[in-house]
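Data availability (excerpt). The following record was deposited with the supplementary files.
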Amino acid sequence: MVAKAQKFAPEDLPTWKLKNLVTGYERIGDLYSAIDMAEEFVVRRPKNTDMQRKLALLYVQTRDYTSALEILEKIQSNFSQDAEIQFLYAQMLKQNGFYERSTDAFDSFLN
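Predicted structure:
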């Protein structure tokens, strides 16, 4: 008898399990599955900025700079004291061709 992996859709899982799966998938290096779970979590809990932060970082790791910028634009004001987020925001602006805004963001980061 051959065991088959069960397929499940993120929308079928409880929210708490999504959060655990994001961490688990990230730990084993399956960043795309982690993104799938994190995206569903954010849909359910749009005010959870910590998961949005994690999702933005996952997007950066997978070089999806457009999606990373979209998330960072939503949350960067909540993380005004978080140097990593402020720096990533400036980087993503630059990666997406917003050079003037990127320069302003880098200046803000340095101050």
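Summary of structural features: The chain is about 70% helix and 0% strand.
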